[in-house]
């Protein structure tokens, strides 16, 4: 069932691991088939290098497993379902704990668009409050931020990105991390002008 989506999600999960975006089994990935309303999500707590297509469970939008994978589905399945319910046009969700973006999430500071890569995820990041991983409270609190941005920083946790094909959504998560890294370095250079976002007029030209 949904073999093509499973292949795409597996490929994105492995790529995220190889690029250093997700380490030590953290992060999770999914795609939805809008026609059937079923989604493929990464299994919980597995080494991605060992995963096979058949290991990915299929869920419906109530969270019920309609096809078993290996072990349990990611504990963050509620977060993914909330994203699909909030944004009916998206087809993939990528959640990472990438370090620079998570540092800004820990401090509750949105990542300023200091380099043009920010355009790729819609220029700004939105902030979501802190709730324990895997809870309905965490899932519910991303709904409003997702209405304003494709990239949400979840406080004391990590990053949630949404989009169409999962390759593009993963790229958004990679650019969130890249911009966060540059922003961090720029904030820590003691000379020169204060760090500022790219002027809105220039960002408009880019988009
Ligand atoms: Zn997480």
Give a description of the structure.
Strand 7 (151-154) and strand 8 (158-163) form a beta hairpin. This protein has helices at residues 3-18, 77-86, 99-107, 136-141, 143-148, 166-187, 200-206, and strands at 28-33, 38-41, 58-59, 65-67, 92-96, 126-128, 151-154, 158-163. The N and C termini lie far apart (37 Å). It is an alpha+beta fold. The longest helix is centred in the C-terminal third of the chain and has 22 residues, at 166-187. It is built from 7 helices and 8 strands. Strands 4-3-2-1-5-8-7-6 form an 8-stranded mixed beta sheet, sandwiched between helices. The chain is 37% helix and 16% strand. The chain is globular and about 55 Å long. Helix 1 runs parallel beside helix 6 (166-187) and helix 3 packs across helix 6. The structure holds zinc ion (ZN). Residues 76, 95, 97, 133, 157-158 line the site of zinc ion.
The helicity comes to 25-40%
Q: What is the H-and-E element order?
A: HEEEEHEHEHHEEHH
Overall form: globular
Average pLDDT, rounded to a whole number, is 95
**SS class:** alpha+beta
Largest sheet: 8 strands, mixed
DSSP helix count?
7
List its salient traits:
alpha+beta; eight-stranded mixed beta sheet; 37% helix; globular; binds zinc ion
In short:
The chain is of the alpha+beta class. It has helices at residues 3-18, 77-86, 99-107, 136-141, 143-148, 166-187, 200-206, and strands spanning 28-33, 38-41, 58-59, 65-67, 92-96, 126-128, 151-154, 158-163.
Layout: helices, strands, pairs:
Blueprint (H helix, E strand, L loop, with lengths): L2 H16 L9 E6 L4 E4 L16 E2 L5 E3 L9 H10 L5 E5 L2 H9 L18 E3 L7 H6 L1 H6 L2 E4 L3 E6 L2 H22 L12 H7 L1
